[in-house]
Amino acid sequence: MRSPDTLTSPATRHRIPPQWWPWCSTAARLVLAGVWAWAGVAKVGDPDASVRAVRAYEILPETIVKPFAWGLPFVELALAALLLLGLATRPAAWVSAGLLLVFVAGTATAWARGLQIDCGCFGGGGAAAADGPRYLRELGRDGLFLCLAILVAAGAPSRLALDNLARD
Amino acid sequence: MWWVLGAVIVAAVVVGVLVQRSRSETEQAMVTRPTSAVGPNGGALVGDANAPVTITEYGDFQCPVCARLHQLWGPTLDQLIQSGQVKFEFVGLAYLDQGTTESLRSAAAATCAADAGTFLPYHDTLYNQQSPTENSGFLTNQRLVAFGRDAGITDNTFTRCVDSGRFDGWVRKNTDAASSSGVRGTPTVLIDGKVVDNADAADPSRLAALVAQAGGGR
What we know:
The complex is a heterodimer.
Chain A: H1 10-14, H2 21-44, H3 47-56, H4 62-85, H5 89-112, H6 135-154, H7 162-167
Helix pairs in contact in A: 2-4, 2-6, 3-4, 4-5, 5-6
Chain B: H1 2-29, E1 44-46, E2 53-59, H2 64-82, E3 86-92, H3 102-115, H4 119-128, H5 141-150, H6 156-164, H7 168-180, E4 188-191, E5 194-196, H8 198-202, H9 204-216
Parallel strand pairs in B: 2-3
Antiparallel strand pairs in B: 1-3, 2-4, 4-5
Helix pairs in contact in B: 3-4, 3-5, 3-7, 5-6
């Protein structure tokens, strides 16, 4: 019979080896870049729909709605480019996390206020689907993206990044 | 590295606002007003202009709930219009387009049909023939023209109107105005400017009672 100290605990057995951490961070960075690219491209083609989607939250004053709706897709595309290249990676990931928190808060308050809207995260004008809003799914999805952003921001430095050239 | 990010974000916001504002203004500037009767919200107006009650529907021809409402309230609404109790304003919106222009072009085509004097039959055809899937590519210009023929439009002006997107700017303008005035989804029904629950609108007796209450029963 083996003594207990020779047994590998489940936590140890499943722990990711440290040499893999930078690659996990790289994967998270690239997925996040893809998410921002998708969100930006989906919105950039229809500025009026973006305005309607932002207006549907009934949070921002009308004077801010249009600049916010028009600027947001370009910010998302800029974050996508920075994360894809691995340039200013950690700041871009922190800003991503902040932006995702804003989205989570906006969706949660829309739900709490009983609004019947779509988040407009990936295009569209904020009109809810025929079967109603999907707040839980949207919050879960944003929560997952938030975890990725925090992993990139606070985790190991990622590979295949321009930041590494500057460091060398 | 924060300065790199700050510079990129500021540049993105400035470029984004300038580019998108320019595009939005260009699109909304190309507005052609229909020659047919238009209601206070920019929608096609049918019925007796002196009718005491106005029913307004903000609808999207891709919206399945709108098509369902059309089935449920259609006969009652027709009767109320025919009896002169109600004038009906239909504001076609482009709320459900996602990477497509099917809502936009169908609402614009309905405006072409209004100018051809055949609004209600065309509106009925669009709802009755609605695709079960939104943004599927179903509402091509060819099909929108064919629906016109089904509704009895034989004039080639209608075909040219649909193909040229003559009222696209008009629909964009109405859609933006609807969004600004708080219309968050379709269908949104108003009786004399007051929003009515869709369930009430869909029920013939409750709809008739609401119209009577608003002054249409006099």
